[in-house]
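Q: Sequence in, structure out?
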Amino acid sequence: MKFKKRAVSLLTAFCLLAAAGVPAKAISDQDVKAPSAVVMEATTGKILYEKNPHEKRPGASITKVMTLLLVMEAIDSGKISLTDTVTASAHAASMGGSDIWLKEGETMTVDDLLKATVIMSANDAAVALAEHVAGSEDDFLRQMNEKAKALGMNDTTFKNCNGLDEDGHLTSAYDIALMSAQLIKHKKIFDYTLTWIDHVRGGKTQLVNTNKLIRTYKGITGLKTGTTGKAGSCISATAERDNVSLIAVVLGSPSTKDRFADAAQLLDYGFANWAMTAPETPSLEPVPVTNGMQNSVAPEAPAGKSILVPKGKENDVVSQVTLAETLEAPVEKGQIIGKITYKLGDETLQETDIRAKTAVSQITFFSVFRILLKYMVCF
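A: Exactly. Output:
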């Protein structure tokens, strides 16, 4: 009887803790079998977990995330379109590994090549897309490395556009998270990453998605798998729940089963422990202006962006307003006159500029004269 009462008591306590939003146990490096891994919140870039995040490793077909990013940018800019017809070169047709067996001179639309690249991780299709965007894979590679540098991917050097093993072709879990965050800004990519089975060549060639998580993980949105002899089994897995967008990168797993298990575990950890909250913009009083044609100016500030906080702390974010006590004319429209700081405890989460809503010109002899003249005319 005593045992039953204690069991009920423990169960009640557990339920109360769960209702209070107590975070799940933190993941240790021993829990993650892969030698290198990262969990990033995509919209803020905040790293939620890392294990050897900057260790330079082969990235296998996750390389294609950068290839796809440049292709999507080319589509958005109007440089190419989904309906463009691409003719496979001898170079594209010569790729090994995972491919769709392109033949030199064979034609395929950009849309079908994207399907093959994303769903089946086709190396030949990736090269054909690269050549269509830049004219040659070498020129496309220059764009890839320039983009990597611009994104702060300091651990990365691309030697090809598809991820086949090549000396010096290296990246890191952190860098893959960076470029994955950029790719998922192009929502069209989800049309491909969430497709389980599709076809090209008029239905003659079947494509089956290499990312098994799209059939098993709640909220999954993508993104890319990769496996080579040197790289091991790798994945960049993206998922979204309750406005929290996560990227779990796993490099060098010993098996495909392990990479999916690690990725799911890392995503679970992120969703269990973190939440997004949208802070309210505090009310702002007009700021006095000296020597101006108006005696005050209205301040304005954009609504605060969503903030990532530990789950259960959504209502603990406070705002601090720093605003000029007075301003000296002239005041320009849009002039920064203060800031709003959003904090959780002692940690600053976000800062937003407060700006002058309108311009206030300075009082001059001529401006006063015009006012007096207008006043005299009225009488």
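Confidence is low (pLDDT under 50) at residues 1-23.
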